[in-house]
Amino acid sequence: MCQHITRRIAVENSPGTAFQSAVDRYVFDKKLPLLVLDALKRIEIAQRVDISHGLGKQHKFAYLQPELFHESFSSKLEGIWVACEVWDFGTLSTLFDGMSEADQDVTSTQHNISNGRIFASWLLSLNYLRNLCAHHSRLWNRNIVDLSELPPVAQVPSLAAFRNDPRRQAHPDTPA
Known about the structure:
The protein has 7 helices and no strands.
């Protein structure tokens, strides 16, 4: 009974709004994370292969070579191929963020982004998006905490529409 009254009040207090539109939005927000997770799964697997292969080409025990990482990330790691297989996407994103810029550039170039630091920001944002989906958080119309940098338009022309249209850009979370 109470649910029916709440629905009726919400619909009556929002001119031009029908309860069905709220249901439709809810169903859409339930389906969207599944589509995003499917795409992110492919990105995660590609990064697992690219990072372990790229570092492994330099040294099969790359995790013992502190010169391959930023100073702040130079602690010893487990076997790089084994580690990359068992780490989650967040750990892989953090590992990529800790790699030298030259190694980041090599890996990111395989995905048509020449600047590894820009690619690192994308991986961190994709990890945030993945966590939202995996933990059943609302995805539609959500403000994003960590905004990725956009690569130059000449490099990825398909992203040009996002440069000058605020409606197509992510909005940072604002404190409540």
